[in-house]
Amino acid sequence: MSGGICVGLISGTSLDAVDAAACEFDAEGRWRRLLGTHSESYPSALRQELLDLQRRPDTAITLRDVTRLDAAIGDCFAQAAARLLEQLSLRPPDVDAIGSHGQTVFHDPLTIRSSLQLGDPNRIAARTGVRTIADFRRADMTHGGQGAPLMPAFHQAVFGGSPCVVANIGGISNITVLGAADAPVFGFDTGPGNALLDDWIQREKGLAYDRGGEWARSAEADRALLAACLRDPYLALPPPKSTGRDYFNLDWLARRTDALPADAAVIQRTLLELTVESLSRAIDAEAPKARELFVCGGGARNGFLMERLAQRLPRLRVADTSARGLDPDWVEAAGFAWLAWRTARGRPGNLPSVTGAGREVVLGGIYAP
């Protein structure tokens, strides 16, 4: 089969919006270019409901509510894809496939060994007229993998060629370690990214996020609280490993200490340092020979966070992924376009060296329009 255009859809653990990216690939699935992007915000009530569900995954919820959320999220994803296709004047025959990650509401790779992403792909296919591929995580988990992270395979395809680390700082942070061309690729979730930072500033100031990290910059970290957070057992686990907002949330923060510091800005700075330190320790341990760090996700837009990473990792050149030709805001959406291209051709999309799966597998199911 020839190359083609695929669209990737993703809403991550930060629930900022549904991101849609149209990408062109050659006949071998190699990256050609980003054709266009669109970001579709969730309705505020839906976003808050999803945030509450992420933070407290053991909250009782009815089957009626699960079905309602699946339909509502599917409609948001469908609208994001349809508006992008309209923006680019792309007709259904022009598009090979849509890859929809959906919205993760539950992820348990250790006990239940399954994951749940909502966002009915039938609605996306029907609204756009394009076959839609979804449910990317569970095939890997069925074969013993964590189902996450899935982006290292795409990072290898787009950013590979020289040794480096790619860090995706979304709600949770993860890294991909890329070595020489013949070296195995590996990666894992390192711990908190923006989730705790966003939750804290929303609670204290009613803001969605700390623009540029300026509120965190205004204070010094509480070293005792930081040390307590860094003692969390997850951070010391060896890879493969993955985590989520159901683990790292404000309830988790409250359990680190008997009393939080009185100054809310101090806590914001401490949480930023937690992201920096947990990410840096993972890079020091697993990528000691790397000399470059490329950041994508929302964390790439946090100027103070990027400064602190550069200060903490002076041996590395720290930049965002635009230095490698792909805007950091769109790496994940582009990654699911790439995974859709592979699934449509029956090619595996996971990396067992990353997820711990027993073998490579084709990811996701295909939904006809």
Distance between the termini: 20 Å
Quaternary structure of the protein? single chain
Our estimate of the beta-strand percent is 15-25%
Averaged pLDDT, please? 94
| Domain unit count | 2
CATH class of the largest domain: Alpha Beta
Radius of gyration: 20 Å
| SSE sequence, one letter per element | EEEHHEEHEHHEEEHHHHHHEHEHHE
Largest sheet: 7 strands, mixed
Principal-axes shape call: globular
Provide the structure class: alpha/beta
Report the strand count.
Answer: 12
What's a concise summary of this model?
This protein has 369 residues and is α/β, with parallel strands linked by helices. Helix content is 38%, strand content 21%. The chain has two domains: 4-148 and 328-367, 2-Layer Sandwich (Nucleotidyltransferase, domain 5), CATH 3.30.420; 151-324, ATPase, nucleotide binding domain (Nucleotidyltransferase, domain 5, 2-Layer Sandwich).
Explain what this protein looks like in three dimensions.
This protein has helices at about 45-55, 65-85, 120-130, 140, 150-160, 195-205, 215, 225-230, 235, 250-255, 265-285, 305-310, 330-345, 350-355, and strands at about 5-10, 20-25, 30-40, 95-110, 115-120, 130-135, 165-170, 170-180, 185-190, 290-295, 315-320, 365. The chain starts with a strand and ends with a strand. The mean pLDDT is about 95. The relative contact order is 0.18. The strands form two sheets. Strands 1, 2, 3, 4, 5, 6 and 12 form a seven-stranded mixed beta sheet that branches. A five-stranded mixed beta sheet has the order 9-8-7-10-11, sandwiched between helices. It folds into two domains: about 5-150 and about 330-365, Nucleotidyltransferase, domain 5; about 150-325, Nucleotidyltransferase, domain 5 (2-Layer Sandwich). With about 375 residues, the protein is of the alpha/beta class.
